[in-house]
Amino acid sequence: MLRPVLLFLSIAGGTAALASQLLDVAVKPGSPSAMTATAPKAVPSPQQTSSGYRTVTLRDDGRGHFQVEANVDGRRIDFLVDTGASVIALREGSAARLGIFPRASDYTAKIQTANGTGKAARVTLNRIEINGITVRDVQAIVVPDDQLAVNLLGMSFLSRVKWSHDRGKLVLEQ
């Protein structure tokens, strides 16, 4: 059974929230998700292996945000890491680069923005890899480009790896 998803976007406040009973993509206040991100991406450190684990360290972009380029189903896609987002949110343009073209009938998740109502499509991404850390069969939604300024790497990826944040570094481990 599909449940509605709501998206609230406030350009002035730089805040967006996408919520439902099962899916909850939320962006913290001050997040650039409602704005065009112009700061340089955080560059992942080289993969490190310790005790059999793969570790990637991301450094913040100077504003406290972590941006990363991931390999998604064989294509490079830019993301804003968002620990408050329970699923990955892809802009339609990025989804198209992945060969994902939801039909109009696939947009069943109802969303509400500051500009009115809209819809999102639920999808499953086969594989997401960040510098050697790989997660398969990851839930995501596709959101029209005019309703989301950046792709969000949410908890549907992050909950499947160990991660920690300390003094401007986000460490992913698998």
Q: How would you characterize this protein structure?
A:
- By secondary structure, this protein is mainly β.
- The protein has two helices and 14 strands.
- Strands 6, 7, 8, 9, 10, 11 and 12 form a seven-stranded mixed beta sheet that branches.
- 37% of the residues are buried.
- Residues 1-40 have low confidence and may be disordered.
Structural shape: globular
Could you give a short account of the major beta sheet?
7 strands, mixed
- Spans where pLDDT lies below 50 across 5 or more residues: 1-40
How many helices in DSSP terms?
2
β-sheet strand percentage = over 45%
| Total count of strands | 14
Radius of gyration: 15 Å
Instruction: Return the string of H and E elements.
Output: EEEEEEEEHEEEEHEE
State the helical fraction.
Answer: under 10%
Strand-pairing-aware structural class: mainly beta
End-to-end C-alpha gap:
32 Å
Summarize the structure in short.
This protein has 174 residues and is mainly beta. Helices cover 6% and strands 48% of the residues.
Overview features:
174 residues, mainly beta, 7-stranded mixed beta sheet, 4-stranded antiparallel beta sheet, 6% helix, globular, disordered N terminus
Task: Break the fold down into its secondary structure elements and pairings.
Elements: E1 6-10, E2 15-19, E3 24-26, E4 48-50, E5 53-59, E6 67-72, E7 75-81, E8 88-91, H1 92-97, E9 109-113, E10 116-130, E11 133-143, E12 152-153, H2 155-158, E13 162-166, E14 169-173
Parallel strand pairs: 7-12, 8-11
Antiparallel strand pairs: 1-2, 2-3, 4-5, 5-14, 6-7, 6-10, 9-10, 10-11, 13-14
